[in-house]
Specification:
By secondary structure, this protein is an alpha/beta fold. It has seven helices and seven strands; from the N terminus they run βαββαβαβαβαααβ. Strand 4, helix 3 and strand 5 form a beta-alpha-beta unit.
Length: about 270
């Protein structure tokens, strides 16, 4: 298949979620062989058709799962050009109300999962980079790693950790031909956002689904929130050789949300 990723091999963690599926579909369209790592075949979109990416059973918090998944990809494809660490969870609580187990779970998925998959993928990524091209790791941070939404203490802290880890990995492994970047999305139309609209946690606020949707759109300078395809487009570029000089950066994708001061939203 022709495309800017022809002949490349990719692993997308959280690959059966809303953003993960869009990433897998886009990378496949561009010619990559894609492995979708997730807890279940259906993931978070149980009522939707499964994409064409190869499913790999993967709990990113399990070192055994991660090592087995990477070993399987090595046997099947012999290398790994692209690692997308898209698996993540959000817990809507302040530090006063979150339990230690919930705090640890948030960090286990968002931070330790990124560490484990990257650690075990390095030999395959080095092999791909050794063929005269660069390999690419794309982590998932958040604008909440820069600014804070109320009631998301563990999530904000975990995404800040991913941002720092991304820079450290870029410095350590750039000389090996491995680029490392993080995408920091704002509001993206996923099952997590729809749960927010429906009134889960702090998202309810007494509004209807439609008033909440309108409020979220209107707070953005472009008057809309993003889609998984918007994220997949940026992943596609960062994964490609067109981005060969891009590394160690935090790419904010939020429709201009964080570009404005608070009073400009009035």
């Amino acid at each position: 298949m022709n495309g800017n990723l022809a002949g490349k091999v990719a692993l997308v963690t959280g690959g059966r979620g809303g953003i993960g599926r869009a990433i897998g579909a886009r990378l496949s369209k561009e010619g990559a062989t894609v492995y979708a790592g997730d807890l279940t075949q259906s993931g978070s979109l149980r009522d939707r058709e499964v994409s064409g990416a190869n499913f790999v059973q993967l709990d990113v918090t399990s070192e055994n799962d991660v090592s087995n998944a990477i070993a399987y990809i090595g046997r099947e494809s012999g290398k790994l050009d692209i690692l997308v660490n898209a698996a993540g969870i959000e817990i809507e609580k302040t530090i006063e109300h979150i339990s230690l187990s919930e705090w640890n779970r948030c960090f286990a998925v968002n931070v330790t999962g990124t560490f484990l998959t990257s650690k075990y993928a390095l030999p395959l990524l080095r092999k791909a980079a050794g063929q005269g091209q660069t390999a690419s790791i794309i982590n998932f941070g958040s604008y909440d790693g820069f600014l804070a939404d109320p009631g998301l203490a563990a999530y904000c802290a975990s995404k800040g950790a991913v941002h720092a880890l991304t820079r450290a990995m870029a410095c350590d492994h750039g000389p090996e031909g491995i680029r490392v970047n993080a995408i920091c999305p704002g509001y993206i139309d996923t099952p997590m956002l729809q749960a927010f609209f429906a009134g889960a946690g702090s998202g309810g606020g007494g509004g209807t689904v439609e008033t909440l949707r309108d409020a979220v759109r209107n707070v953005h300078p472009i008057r809309n929130y993003g889609t998984p395809d918007d994220v997949a487009n940026l992943v596609n570029w960062l994964a490609s050789d067109e981005a060969r000089y891009a590394s160690g950066q935090l790419w904010v994708l939020d429709g201009g949300l964080t570009a404005q001061v608070q009073q400009m939203r009035l």
